Amino acid sequence: MCSWKARHRALELALLVSLVAGVWACDDDVSFPNVDYPEVWGFWSGQYRVSACSLSGADDPFLCDEVFYNGASLILEMDLDQLDQQVGGFIYQGSLEGEVAGTVDLDGVLRLEGTIGGLDADFTTTILAWQAGLVGDTLLGSWRFWVEDNSGQGFGAATVDAGLRLYGPSVVKFFGCASEDELDPDGELVGSLDAGDCELAGGAYFEGAEDGALFDVYELTGAAGDSIEVTLRSEDFDALLLVADLGEEYLGGDDDSGGGIGGTDAAVTIVFEVPETLLLIATSYWAGELGDYTLGAELLEPPPLAASTPAADRAPGSRFRVLSAGVGKPDRVIGQPSVHPAQTFTRPSKRSKRPTE
Description:
Layout: H1 2-26, E1 42-56, H2 62-67, E2 73-83, E3 86-93, E4 96-104, E5 109-117, E6 123-135, E7 138-149, E8 157-167, E9 173-174, E10 177-178, E11 181-183, E12 188-193, E13 198-201, E14 211-222, E15 227-233, E16 239-244, E17 250-254, E18 266-272, E19 276-284, E20 291-299, E21 320-323
Parallel strand pairs: 11-14
Antiparallel strand pairs: 1-2, 1-8, 2-3, 3-4, 4-5, 5-6, 6-7, 7-8, 9-10, 12-20, 13-14, 14-19, 15-18, 15-20, 16-17, 16-19, 18-21
């Protein structure tokens, strides 16, 4: 009986092979469909929010107390290439960098492995688990990594879990945070700094400002010749207003020029030489401040500032000017080491949003 079953199965297999061969021989147009994997190549940037940090072999709780504390929001960037299912490229965790490799499946789930930093850097980050799903222009998911101190400062090592949100190349963003809305040149928007917002290395952009301040991003478009005054007002926190271009390059900012209660509102005037869209970053001078704010714009008529600099005296290729009287409050800053280890996980302010170009 068993021998008969074996011969029967062999006969079925032979018939199947003959049938397939016959189809190929009779119809040259027959082909198997190509598999199209979701596209995840390009430059991604965003922030990850720490949910847990567990120390190992540390005499100093610095890693979990000051860098990867519960709720901390830190920047992450990736520049990926793709060939079908295979994905690889470079990853940037603040000022650390490394390489990643992995796969994306047909459902758009991206899985990566890799190491960031290394023995020649202050820290080494090893990816233990990475899984993010493609949702439109966003990668949403989680990652777990092992971070180890190489500098001998006693910080030891830690396992960190975090939620992850990265935005694709087409999303307007600054420091890994997507634009909330567009401000009309003669309009007003109401917002708030909340515990779930992204965090900014404010001191890297504005002298004296504290790192770790929450922020929101908005767009402002001006026409050639426009002079637009932008104000950030709040009764809840010390307002700090920053301006950047769409390439995420910082252009200028203001701390206290807007007056207001306590004299802590911010104001800048932007002069547009050509039509341009800029980014407005609404944040606070001090870390950890929360509360409501109003972001307003007023189109100055006539525009006295647009013509204040003769064309011959303008910098070649200049497209706009950010004018401000704010100088910050360096006398109020609590003294810190000139190079704090936490800065390792903060993106350098002068780095392009496309690090590999």
